[in-house]
Specification:
Number of strands: 15
Number of domains: 2
Distance between the termini: 23 Å
Oligomer: single chain
Radius of gyration: 20 Å
Number of helices: 5
Helix content: 10-25%
Order of helices and strands: EEEEEHHEEHHEEEEEHEEE
Strand order of the largest sheet: 2-1-4-5-7-3
Length: 305
C-alpha cells in the first residue's frame, strides 16, 4: 500500500493550506505524471468517460471518528486492489476529492486547494476510512488512470455527499503562481545522453532520476535525465506556497544540479528566489491565474459505522 504521511505540525505559510505538512513517500514516484486539471473537470465523467450521472460508488464504506494523538499518522493512500483507506481530517478528504485531480501521493497539487466557510472542527477531527468496491467493479477500479485516479475521486465525492451531507460550490479568484521560465541569458542545460545509465535515486515522473545533495537532500538535488516539469514539481513539492507552472518551453531531458541557497534572515524554504537557477539560465517569476475556490454550503458529522 502506498501512502502519504502527514505530520501534525503546520509549517506552510500558504493561505491556501490550513492543514498539516505533507511528506511524500519515495515509492510515489513510480506513478506516471499527474494531470493538473480544474476542479472536477475529469472526475465528474465517472467510469463511463462521458456521463456525469453515472457515478462510481463504493459498495461498502466505514467512516469512524478517532482521537488525534501520539501514534496516529494522517495518511491518504492510493487505491488498494479493491478499495481505499485513509486516516484524515474532513478538510483533507474534501481537498483530495474536489481539488485539482492528482494521485494521493501528489499532494503538492491537491493540498493547495482553497476553501471557505469551513465549519468548526473541519481541520481537527480525524476519520478512519475503509472502503471497498463491488466485485463487479474491481477490474475497472484496478484499471483506472493512475495519473488522475478518476474513479477514486468520484467514489469519494459520492461518499462525502451521502455520509457527511456535503454540499459545496465553486467560485473563481485571482491567486499567485510561480512561473519557471528561461532567463534573458538563455538556457544553460546539459542534454542527457539517451543511452546513459541512470544512478540509483528517486524516480521522477518523467522516468528520470533525482539524487539528494546533503543529508536527505537538504542542500539541493542532482537531476539525471529530467525534464523541466520534473523541476517544477520538485520545487512545489518541497517549498513553494503556490502552484509552479513550467513556462520554459523546453521539452528535452537534461542533467543538472539545483542547490538551495537560503536568503540570510529568511526562514529556510519560503524564499522563492532561494534556488541556484541562474547558472542554468532559468528563473522563477511570480504571476497570477484564476483558480477555483471551494465554498462549503453544508456539512454534517457522519453517523459512525
Amino acid at each position: 500500500m502506498e501512502k502519504i504521511l502527514i505530520s501534525s505540525t503546520k509549517s506552510f505559510r500558504s493561505p491556501f493550506l490550513p492543514l498539516a505538512v505533507f511528506l511524500l513517500a519515495s515509492v510515489a514516484a513510480s506513478y506516471p505524471a499527474g494531470a493538473q486539471t480544474g476542479l472536477g473537470e475529469q472526475a465528474s465523467k465517472g467510469r463511463s468517460g462521458g456521463d456525469p450521472t453515472n457515478e462510481f460508488k463504493f459498495e461498502v464504506i466505514s467512516i469512524k471518528p478517532i482521537q488525534r494523538g501520539p501514534g496516529v499518522q494522517l495518511a491518504i493512500t492510493n487505491p488498494t486492489p479493491n478499495g481505499f483507506t485513509a486516516t484524515a481530517t474532513l478538510w483533507q478528504l474534501v481537498a483530495f476529492a474536489y481539488g485539482s485531480l492528482a494521485p494521493a501521493w501528489k499532494v503538492q497539487v491537491w493540498q493547495k486547494t482553497e476553501m471557505r466557510n469551513e465549519p468548526s472542527g473541519f481541520e481537527e477531527q480525524v476519520y478512519a476510512i475503509d472502503a471497498r468496491v463491488s466485485h463487479s467493479e474491481v477490474e475497472a477500479w484496478q484499471n483506472q488512470d493512475k495519473r488522475t485516479q478518476d474513479l477514486l475521486h468520484v467514489a469519494l465525492r459520492a461518499a462525502l455527499k451521502e455520509r457527511f451531507k456535503l454540499a459545496l460550490h465553486k467560485e473563481s479568484a485571482q491567486r499567485t503562481i510561480f512561473e519557471l521560465a528561461v532567463s534573458k541569458r538563455g538556457p544553460r542545460l546539459k542534454p542527457a545522453a539517451s543511452d546513459a545509465v541512470l544512478p540509483v535515486g528517486m524516480k521522477l515522473e518523467s522516468g528520470g532520476v533525482m539524487t539528494g545533495i546533503g543529508p536527505k537532500g537538504s542542500d539541493g538535488w542532482d537531476f539525471h535525465g529530467a525534464t523541466m516539469q520534473d523541476l517544477a514539481d520538485r520545487m512545489l513539492q518541497s517549498f513553494l506556497d503556490g502552484p509552479v507552472r513550467d513556462r520554459t518551453g523546453l521539452t528535452g531531458r537534461y542533467d543538472f544540479q539545483v542547490r538551495i541557497v537560503p536568503t540570510p534572515g529568511e526562514e529556510r524554504g519560503y524564499d522563492y528566489d532561494a534556488y541556484s537557477l541562474s547558472d542554468l539560465g532559468l528563473e522563477l517569476k511570480r504571476g497570477t491565474e484564476n483558480r477555483p475556490i471551494l465554498v462549503i454550503d453544508h456539512v454534517e458529522r457522519p453517523t459512525p459505522n
